[in-house]
Amino acid sequence: MLLKEGASDVIVAATHGVLSGGAVARVTASPMETLVTTDSIMATEAVHGAHNIDQLTVAPLIAEAMHRIAEERSVSSLFD
Hints:
Elements: E1 11-16, H1 23-29, E2 34-38, H2 45-49, E3 53-56, H3 59-70
Parallel strand pairs: 1-2, 2-3
């Protein structure tokens, strides 16, 4: 575990936070400072109530990508 290796703060990032079953309870009870995930999967009320889970929205990015694809414009330039 990272804390045993001298890490003082543990921050975890996940693209698609599939927090099913007892996952939210395990994250909440863990020593990790924060789990950062996107809202590409609808979060449950348990996720919204967790003190150490932050969910970032990707809707504007996906909408802009779709708009650029429809207009045959560069999508890769979104990440420059």
